[in-house]
Design brief:
With 110 residues, this protein is mainly α. It is built from five helices and three strands. The longest helix has 13 residues.
Length: 110
């Protein structure tokens, strides 16, 4: 239901819909960065996968509730020369508003 709603709302083709992070990573989508706005408990495992796959990432805070996980994400970002940037809750940022504006205008990927 959620994918069909997104497809309709943002005029997306089927190749732009993903039911999991793994399905997204398998397609090796080219993009400038990804926004990791998963539930807090999933920030670490999803961030590790995204960074290891070579994506620059905007990560919603908290990065993690565990210091070791925060350090590991930072180490990965530095070692892989990827950007892992923590931010305020994405739902409350200007970035989200602008991203939605771009997506609604059909200009994503341009």
């Amino acid at each position: 239901v959620g994918l069909n709603k997104a497809k309709t709302a943002f005029n997306l083709s089927d190749d732009k819909l993903f039911d999991s992070l793994d399905s997204f990573l398998e397609k090796k989508v080219e993009c400038d960065f990804v926004i990791n706005a998963t539930m807090d408990t999933y920030h670490y495992p999803t961030s590790v996968k995204l960074l290891n796959a070579g994506y620059n990432m905007l990560l919603e805070k908290p990065v993690s509730n565990k210091a070791e996980e925060v350090k590991e994400i930072a180490r990965l970002a530095l070692d892989l020369q990827e950007i892992g940037y923590p931010c305020r809750t994405v739902l409350q940022t200007t970035l989200k508003k602008e991203t939605l504006h771009i997506r609604r205008g059909g200009k994503q990927g341009q």
